[in-house]
C-alpha cells in the first residue's frame, strides 16, 4: 500500500512538472561568464557531477561551442552583459527555452586595472555595467518574466578586492563593493522568493583576470604582484587555486548546502583584518572547513584534502 501511494505521489509530481513544461528532477542553472575561467569550470562540474541543465553566457562563441561539444547538458547564450540589449537577449532566451531556473550564478566580471588618475569613462562604464548593473538587471528581468523557481539560489561571485584595497585595482574594488551592497539589498527585497549568497574564490591562477594582472605594466600593480608573491610564500595556509578547485568549492556552496546554510553561511569568518561576515563564503583558509561543525563537514574535509591542505 505504502509503495502504491509513493508511486501515485511520483506520478502527481511528474504531472505537475509536465504541466509547467519541465522535466522532473532536472535542475537548471544559468552561469554568466561561463565561457572561460572559473565560470567554465563551474559549468562543467554542475553539468557532469550534478547532471543539471546548464546555460552559460558569454561573448566568445567559439569557446562556448567547444564547451557545448564536450558536455551535452550545457547550452550557451551569446550576449554582451555590458549592454541593455544583451540582458534582454538572455531573458528572452531563457523564456523561449521554457526553462525555469533553480540557480543563477552572477560570475562574469571585468577587471580594468588603472590608477584613478588614468581611468577612462569607458573603463568605468564597462566595470560597473558588467559587475554591478548586469546582475541587477538580470535578476529583475528574470523575476518579471517569472523564470525563477521558488527559492532559486542567486550566487554572486565576489572578490577579496572588495575590501582589500590596492593601488591600480580601485575600479574593480568599487564594483565588487557595489555588487555586495546589491547582494544585501536583494536579500531584503527578494526575501520571499530568492536565496542569495556571495562567494569568494580566493586567488585563482590561469584566468583572464589573473593574466591581466601578470601582464600589467602599471608600476603599482608590478609592486603589488611582488608583495602578493612574498605574502603567499610566507603564508603556506593560503593557496593559489586552479579554476577547477575554485569551481569545486563554488559548486559545493551552490548545490550541497541546506537553504539555511546557503543564506547564512557559518563557514565564513573574519580573516586578518578583513570584513568577511556571516553572509559570505570564503575559501582561502581550509583549516576552518576541517573543523566545520556542520552536517556536511565531511564533504568539506574531503574538499580541504583535495585542495592539498
Ligand atoms: N581569477 C581570480 O583570481 C579571481 C579571484 C577572485 C574573484 N574572482 C571573480 O571570479 C569571477 C570569474 O573570474 P575569472 O577569473 O574566471 O574571469 P575570466 O577568466 O576573466 O572570465 C570572465 C568571464 O566573464 C565574461 N564576460 C566578461 N565581460 C563580459 C561581457 N561584457 N558580456 C558577457 N560576458 C562577459 C567572459 O566571457 P567572454 O569573454 O566570452 O565575454 C568570461 O567568461 C569574477 O567575478 C571575478 O571577479 C576571480
TrEMBL record:
The keyword Oxidoreductase applies. GO terms for molecular function: oxidoreductase activity. Keywords: Oxidoreductase. Belongs to the short-chain dehydrogenases/reductases (SDR) family. This is NAD(P)-dependent dehydrogenase, short-chain alcohol dehydrogenase family.
